[in-house]
Amino acid sequence: MNTDLMLNFLLAMIAIVNPIGLIPIWYELTGDAQPKVRRRIAFMVVGTAFVILLIFVNVGNFILDFFSIDIEVFKIAGGLLLLLTGISMVDGQASKLSGNQEEGTTDTELASLRFEKVLVPLTIPMLAGPGALTTVLLFSAQAQEWMDFVGNSIVLVISYALLFLILISSSILEKNVHNLAFVAFTRIFGVIVAAIAIQFMIEGLGDVFPNWLKGGSAVE
């Protein structure tokens, strides 16, 4: 098992997922729900992202090859989704879900109804978007033996378990920080998210149209 590979992968995943930076949009999308419901939403959101990346870390390259899809396409499409998320955060629309007063008889049912509404953008593309998928695929390509794949899977467990703990503990921070601080930070973070999204799109378009970034054109 390549421990250096695991450590680098862990650091990369924590940087990409950015658990602390995710708290404002998590608060915006679920802050009105009861604590028990929020814990279940957190489990569904993190669990879904984890399963997606676990599949890609082990067989992602085979999936892309089978469908003849390039990672550049993920960067462009995911970047577009992420850009829409950033714009909605800046405009204060990220938390304005259609009919956010769900009706259910159990906490799990309420959590499932809210999860359907926050799947995009919370799970995709923020937790399992182009950044995370690209990172996973790059480190998966460096795996030389089956123990390396096991090590990469362990890294995903650690990073997303940490994310889950931060999300379910976010209420402690929310109680001690004024709501206006979250509103302001959400707007600022929205600009950052939009910038990251555009970067992904530029990278994807640059790989697809290399002459574009060089100031030339593929069409003469």
Quick structural gist:
It is built from ten helices and no strands.
Tell me about this structure:
- Helix 2 packs across helix 5, helix 3 (35-67) runs antiparallel to helix 7 (146-168) and helix 4 (71-90) runs antiparallel to helix 6 (130-141).
- By secondary structure, the protein is mainly α.
- The longest helix has 33 residues, at 35-67.
- The protein is globular, with a radius of gyration of 19 Å.
- The mean pLDDT is 81.
- The chain has helices at residues 3-17, 19-30, 35-67, 71-90, 107-127, 130-141, 146-168, 170-176, 179-208, 210-213.
Q: Could you list some keywords that capture this structure?
A:
globular; single chain; 10 helices; mainly alpha
Oligomer: single chain
Averaging pLDDT over every residue, what do you get? 81
Q: Ranges with pLDDT <50 over ≥5 residues? A: none
Task: Give the DSSP E fraction (strand runs of 2 or more residues).
Answer: under 5%
Any idea what the radius of gyration is? 19 Å
Shape annotation: globular
Topology, number of strands: 0
**Largest sheet, described in full?**
none
The run of helices and strands is HHHHHHHHHH
Cα-to-Cα separation, first versus last residue: 50 Å
- The helicity comes to over 70%
Number of alpha- plus pi-helical segments: 10
Computed structural class: mainly alpha
